[in-house]
Amino acid sequence: MKLALVFASLLVLPPQEKEIDNPEFQGWKGLKPGSWVRTKTAMDLGPIQTETITVAKLIEGSDDKVVLELAITTTVAGAEMKRDPEQVTVRSRIRETQLTAEGGKFTKSAEGEETIEVLGRKMKCRWIEGKVEKDNLKGKGKTWFHPDIVGGVAKSTFKIEEPIQATAETAVVETRLKE
């Protein structure tokens, strides 16, 4: 009887998805609280362009997670909107297809190395690209990583294909390491 129950449970439970080291966590681990990175995201929605400045500041860190405070300001048609700062927990391990701490799905299609300009200097970065799905948005994205950058992410691009057409590019504009 017990064997039958175990077998039946295997038929209804989805297979466990492989977990991987979280690249977002890797960029913050070992840094002292107070370290931060400022990024600028330019988004083109056709008739509307937006610019978002995000400051991600390390609040606390451990072997299995970091807590970041995000301060986000978005400008649309000359009007600036500041969101209240929010805290986000970034775990050390994520499902292989997980896009970010907030969810979404990522399916990797390619990876490699490329030298790009970051903060006024050339850096050899590791990159990954693939398909992205989050909420009702679908598209393609590419992210460049470098271990010397606070937060680990040097640059990212994203092209939304459904339900609208849009592009976004995020770049690091300033970082500070807390000593």
What does this structure look like?
The protein has 2 helices and 13 strands; from the N terminus they run αβαββββββββββββ. Strands 2, 3, 4, 5, 6, 8, 9, 10, 11, 12 and 13 form an 11-stranded antiparallel beta sheet that branches. A two-stranded antiparallel sheet has the order 1-7. It is globular, with a radius of gyration of 19 Å. Helices cover 8% and strands 63% of the residues. Residues 1-14 have low confidence and may be disordered. The protein has 179 residues and is mainly beta. It has a single domain, classed as YmcC-like fold.
Brief description of this entry?
With 179 residues, the chain is mainly beta. The protein has helices at residues 2-12, 23-26, and strands at 19-21, 36-44, 49-61, 65-76, 79-82, 86-91, 93-95, 98-100, 103-118, 121-134, 137-145, 153-162, 166-176.
- What's the order of the H and E elements? HEHEEEEEEEEEEEE
Uncertain runs: 1-14
The rough form would be described as globular
Output the CATH class name. Mainly Beta
Could you name the CATH topology? Answer: YmcC-like fold
End-to-end distance: 61 Å
Structural class: mainly beta
Cα Rg: 19 Å
The CATH architecture name reads Beta Barrel
Q: Give the beta-strand count.
A: 13
Taken as a percent bin, the fraction of beta residues is over 45%
Count the domains: 1
The helicity comes to under 10%
How confident overall, as mean pLDDT? 86
User: What kind of assembly state do the chains in view correspond to?
Assistant: single chain
Number of helices: 2
**Major β-sheet, in short?**
11 strands, antiparallel
